[in-house]
Amino acid sequence: MIKCAIIGVGGGRARGLAEAYGHVTRGRLAAVSTRRRDRLDAFAAEFGVPARYTDYREMFEREKPDLVHVNTPPSVRLEIFESAESAGVPGVLVEKPLAIQGEDFLAIQAFARSARVKIAVNHQLHFHPRRGRLQQQVRDGAIGNLRFIEASAGMNPAYQGTHALQAIGAFNPGAAPVAVFGQVSGADGLAETTRHHYAPDECTGIIDYDNGVSALLRCGAVAPRVIPGDSVNVHKRIAVYGDRGFVHWTMHDWESRIDDVYERGEHVYAEEDILGQAAMTEAMIDWLEDDAAVHPLNIVSALSDFSVILGIYESALNRAVVSLPFTPSPDLVGKLRATLG
Question: Does the predicted model carry a pTM greater than 0.85?
C-alpha cells in the first residue's frame, strides 16, 4: 500500500484530494502538513489522517511518504520539489499552475532535467470518465484526421488556462506546440495576492502544432459561457474537429457527431471529479511502480503547456508570433502590470 500525504489544506481542492482516497485502492492518506495548527487538526480529524505536521520537511523526514500532493501557491513549488528530491520522496502530484512566470518556469525546467522524483500536475479532468471516453474515441480515429481544436475556460490563464491547454494535448497526443500568437487584457488578476495566481483577466491564443493541427484557446470573459449563471469556474470546455466529425465536452455535458450520427448526454461534475481525482492518483502509483508507465500529466508535458501561456504573454507584449520552444523574457508579470494596469 502506497503511503500518501498532502501539503496544504486550504480551499476545496484539498478536500477533493482527501475524498478521492475513498476510491484509491492502492494508496492510503497517512499524513498531512499545513502551517496553521487549527486548520491542520480540523482537516486531519475530518478525514482520519493520523500524522499531522506544521513543517512539511519534518513530515518528509519522519513519515517518508511515497506520494505527496502539493496544494500550495505556485510561489513555493520549486522549494518543495527540491525538498522532496533531497528527502528521497518518489512522487509528487502538484496543483496547477506549475509556475508564475519565466524565471520560475526556467528554474523548474532545469530542475526537472535531472530530478529523480517523479512529478505530475493535478489536471484531474484528463481522467474524468466521460472525457476519457471521448479522448479514447479521438485517439482511435473515430473523428478521422484532426483539423482544429477549440478550448476555453471561464477563469484567467493562471487559474484554468493550463486545464484547457492540457485538454488540447490530451485530444492531440504526441504533438508539440511550435508557435503561438496571443492577445491579453485586464489587470485585476495581476494584483498582489497570497495565492500568487498572477495572470491577465482574459487571453486568446492561436497555437500551431507540429502535426499540422491548429488550436484556439480563450480564457476569462472572452470564453464562451456554457451554462446560465454568474459562476466563472464552471465554463471549461473543449471541441475537437476532424474530417469525419467532432466531439465536444464541457463540465456538465457532452456531444459528438461522427459519420452523421449525433449523440449527446449530461454528467454530474462532482461525481466525475472524485473519480477523475482517484484515477489520476492511481496512474501516479502506476508510474511509481513502473518507470515505463509515465503519467500523462508528467512535468515535461506540463512545462510544455505552461510555455504556451508564457508565449501568449510574450506575443501580446511584443505584438508578434512566438516560435516555440522559447526563452521567456524576464519579469513578464511586471511587464504585463505596466502595460495593462
Answer: yes
Q: Is the peptide bond before 50 cis (omega within 30 degrees of 0)?
A: no
100 and 231, same domain (yes or no): no
Burial of 290 (0-12, 13-18, 19+ CB in 10 A): exposed
Q: Are residues 328 and 223 in the same domain?
A: yes
Structural domain of residue 89, as residue ranges? Answer: 2-124+275-295
**Whether residues 310 and 327 fall in one domain:** yes
Residues 30 and 110 in one domain: yes
The C-alpha cell at 340 is 495593462
Q: CA angle, corner 116, sides to 111 and 122, nearest 5?
A: 75
**Residue tagged 474524468 (cell numbers):** 128
Q: Is the peptide bond before 129 cis (omega within 30 degrees of 0)?
A: no
- Per DSSP, the three-state class of 132 is helix
Tell me the Cα Rg of the chain. Answer: 20
Structural domain count, the chain = 2
Can you tell me the distance from the alpha carbon of 192 to that of 189, in angstroms, rounded to the nearest whole number?
8
User: What does the DSSP 8-state code read for residue 244?
Assistant: T
Contact (CB, 8 A) for 202 and 219: yes
pLDDT of 230 over the 90 cut: no
The amino acid that residue 223 corresponds to is: A
| pLDDT tens digits along 176-205 | 999 999 999 999 999 999 889 999 999 999
